Known about the structure:
The structure holds three protein chains of three kinds.
Chain A: E1 2-13, E2 16-27, E3 31-35, H1 42-50, E4 57-62, E5 65-66, H2 72-78, E6 80-83, H3 95-103, H4 109-123, H5 138-151, E7 156-160, H6 168-183, E8 187-191, H7 195-201, E9 204-209, E10 212-217, H8 219-224, H9 226-237
Parallel strand pairs in A: 3-8, 3-9, 6-7, 7-8
Antiparallel strand pairs in A: 1-2, 1-4, 4-5, 9-10
Helix pairs in contact in A: 3-4, 3-5, 4-5, 6-7
Chain B: H1 3-35, H2 42-58, H3 63-84, H4 93-115, E1 128-131, E2 134-137, H5 138-160, H6 162-172, H7 174-179, H8 184-206, H9 217-231, H10 235-257, H11 259-276, H12 280-289
Antiparallel strand pairs in B: 1-2
Chain C: H1 6-9, H2 20-36, H3 43-68, H4 76-94, H5 100-125, H6 130-149, E1 157-158, E2 161-162, E3 169-170, E4 176-177, E5 184-185, H7 190-211, H8 214-224, H9 226-230, H10 236-262, E6 264-265, H11 272-285, H12 290-307, H13 312-329, H14 334-353
Antiparallel strand pairs in C: 1-2, 3-6, 4-5
Helix pairs in contact in C: 3-7, 3-10, 3-11, 3-12, 4-5, 4-10, 5-10, 8-10, 11-12, 11-13, 12-14
Amino acid sequence: MALLELRGLNKHFGGLHVTNSVDLVLEAGEIHCLIGPNGAGKSTLFRLILGEHHPGSGDILFAGENITALKPFARIHRGLSVKFQVPGVFKGLSVRQNLEIALQRTHRSVELARGIDRLLTFLNLEAEQMQTAGNLSHGQKQWLEIGMAISLKPQLLLLDEPTAGMSPEETHQTGEMVQRLNADGMTVLAIEHDMAFVRQVAQRVTVLHLGQVFAQGSIDEIVADERVAAIYLGQAHA
Amino acid sequence: MDIATHIFSALYQFGDAFAFLVLSACGLAVIFGMMGVINLAHGEFIMCGAYVTASTVHLGLPLPLAILAGAIVAALVGALVELVVIRHLYDRPLDTIVATWGLSLIATQGTLILVGSSMAGVGTPFGSFQVGEYSYSIYRLVLFASALGVLGGLYMLFNWTRFGVLARATIQVPHMAAALGVDTRLIYSLTFACGAGLAGLAGGLYAPTMTLVPTMGATFIMEAFVTVVIGGADVFLGTAPAGAILAVVKSVMTSWQGQLFGQIGLLVAVIIVVRVLPKGISGFLLRERT
Amino acid sequence: MNGLPGFLRRLEGPQTVGRGPAFWITFAIVFAIACAYPLFSDGYTVGNTVYFFVWVFIALSLCVIWGYGGSLSFGQTAFFGIAGYSYGILTLNFGSAYGFTLAALVLAVVIAALFALLLGYFMFFGRIAGVFLGIVTLAVTLMLERFMAQTAGPEWRIGAARLNGFNGMSAMPPLTIPWSGGDIVLLADIGLYYAVLGLLLLVYLGLRILMNSSFGNVIVAIRENPERAEMLGYDVRKYQLITFVIGAALAGISGVLYTAWGQYITPSSMGMTAAALPLIWVAVGGRSDLTSTVIGTLVVLAAFQALTIYGSQYALVFMGVLLVLTVLIAPNGLVLGAMNLISRLVARRSKGDV
Lengths: 238, 290, 354
């Protein structure tokens, strides 16, 4: 069953088509990676899905409901969640408070405290819970934001370069975590440049190029596709 | 009264309002558009220009030179303010507003202490002319021409001179400009001084038409604010059309219900426009254009 | 504090400085001194102290909107003025019998809050943020001042109340509490002192609870990162609007109390200078903490009044210098900085004891 369906999604800033009639179907329960050269429109696509940008034309369907006109927060209520590319934590607040803000919409009192503790353990941030989030290392900030995103128990988790700035070891751990979440039933759509990560987790891959879906398939099919290699090489030459 | 004099009267009112809005706002708009800084001491730079103009006229300088002196002194004060205060607050825009408000308070009250509660004015030059049964001030036409002149001058400054090109580069990609060897601090200093100087020019130009009191800046800032809020961050695509639109609103409302309603009309127009165009007119135009 | 009902536990929390027995004992002592103070002072000094207390509400309003919510509003004096004028108009028309002045207080605050709701709707739902919010609110405030200043003519009257232009309205009745043995009129001395002190205590504690509640969490989150807050499912604009309306109501309380205290209100209470003063108190105190704001406001007001002996323009220049220096040197506020220092020292010492 399709969880997310993009139909003919167009977004242009002036004359520049950032996404050009993108059709994309995300099956419930899959891990789907979105790759493509810089400027392919990946982040814009995320912003369209989240409602931060509005498409010029086209529709966004989530779990069968047309959410194209919904405000961002309302889409979150429907079961979407996101981790941004630049870690979006509340820098001036403690780690614990960051998680509390994420959880308090759905949890109360004792349950809330327990939920926060569970997340702290899961994220391995127990020792840092009273620290100001702005003082965490880059990797820890990434983890904290992932923690906030998954604490919403979303049906669909959007990850914008989840492993940026991580060591290979941390990248692998992140991959394992994504797989664990997926095993519990969470659908994941990730923008990622790190091909090791893509190979580790992706069940399907979509290549975006110049605002259009360029290719789609398993990671092996994509790697074998000479046209895909050509656009990356083309960019390397440019 | 025949139709032609009606039309002339309406045009005159429009021109007067347009000149006031554009001249009040352009200094604020340059600083905001280029640096993202809202200068709440803007009105006090206007006051500074007016005071310097009036005092140099009393010393015997001809009015045009006196106005120029007002603009230059305001620009120098602006450069000093940038050096001492603004420079340290570039990454804290809200704090810049607060700090410039402090400066505004110091300037207003300081002038009150040093110069007293009012200053001898300068007579409005050129006299008037008659159209139909009404007489009109020639100086108001000079002001209108000056507003157009300032817009034209700014256009040339930012498009045709080396400073203008470097300034625009600095604004768009600050770290890139810095990497290319542009002294971005100097550019910001000069831009702020330029904005302050434009405020001083507005003060000098309007000095012959109003009473000079330390709080005179407040007369200008509301108009300056609304023009910049509606215009958005671009001086040419924002301030000029915003000035034109608001001038229509203001002159129509003023001739219908008096000056106060002209100002209320401005405010209502602002609140409605920002609801419809959050990025101002220039944001709207730029989106359509590119 | 486990025995307390849930909401009282929120008197302490990450959003407010001051916790534990040491803080609350100090708090109780300060409050006891404040209660006993009129017994050792004369009516004039007490009346003057009430004047200081009156301003604390508008300072708290700015603290909530700016310090906690991260939206810089220059419009607080507009709500102050609207509520003050509303109180005047209501009481001049309907008198003070049957405790109507208290109803007028509430009504005037509600009017200010409704105005904020309308203005805030256009601003927040128009996605005005940052510096623009400041200048739009300031423009509205100046507009109101100009409007009220030109209402001198006899045609500007609402019922029995003349607006009186630049000279302002006067001779409205003071707050009056109906009582079986005859009404208690709260003139600007001991009676009003206890009433305002009580209200201040309620508002201060209430705001502590609110700021440490889940609502407070969300508005602080919006200050830190509005995009992230929205993407956790919070309707950012709604929260900003509610915060703005709460702030307007607090400023309105100041306006009513001020009007009832001096039995006059003028347009200049909404002017540039009047609008700048609360900003100075809050910035100097420490905008992101309620306690610092209260202390800062009282200290700066006292200093300002002491300086006006040399002339109010000198005092205002000093205030301007104070503001600029605070922003440059101690952007978080002087009182808050000092309080954080004290609590760190205390923490270190108690650690040393163990």
